[in-house]
Amino acid sequence: MGISRDSWHKRYKTGATRPIPHKKRKFELGRPAANTKIGSHRVHLLRVRGGNFKYRALRLDNGNFSWASEQTTRKTRIVDTVYNSTNNELVRTKTLVKGAIITIDAAPFRQWYESHYALPLARKKGAKLSEEEATNLNKSRSRKTTLKYTERQKTATVDPMLIEQFQTGRLLARISSSPGQVGQANGYILEGKELDFYLRKIRAKKAK
């Protein structure tokens, strides 16, 4: 019969059946959920009402995530789904939906931070740097450029909870786009009270 978004097929609160006013209409149709999974990029184009298009993401492996406190956005790899307030089944099946809490690769944000501030971020003592990282941090600069970096370094503070995550190479983020409609999994890195809230939720879930 097809998925329908009407309300007249439901019974009254008393349990009586409603009269059927007409057959199903095109404007009442519904479609199955996208259930976007983590995997190599696969997006289907869908023609919808009004001649518009939706982009139904079936598989995604990366997205654009913003680091709000640093006012920067980077494209990075999606690693895993760790929490979903609506349904644990979506976590078990690693489904990407709006509002899902996921882990993303921290490398692009670390590279940006170290090139922007010329400071190491969450590096262990004595850790070996790659040639590119070493040149970024230790290259000789003109006096004017050195002053510019010195000014920047005055405001280079990172949340201690974020530093812990940078050490593991994984950051917690929240998806703010609808992958089943826009074909992308974009979002933002969790910080401050929001990060603390979700960390407590994840720990409580693991403790069960």
UniProtKB/TrEMBL annotation:
Pfam families: Ribosomal_S8e. Keywords: Ribonucleoprotein, Ribosomal protein. Gene3D superfamilies: 3.10.290.70, Ribosomal protein S8e, subdomain. InterPro entries: Ribosomal_eS8, Ribosomal_eS8_CS, Ribosomal_protein_eS8_euk, Ribosomal_Se8/biogenesis_NSA2. One of its GO terms (cellular component) is ribosome. Signal peptide: none annotated. It comes from the Eukaryota. One of its GO terms (molecular function) is structural constituent of ribosome. One of its GO terms (biological process) is translation. Coiled coil: none annotated. NCBIfam families: eS8. Belongs to the eukaryotic ribosomal protein eS8 family. This is 40S ribosomal protein S8. It comes from Caenorhabditis auriculariae.
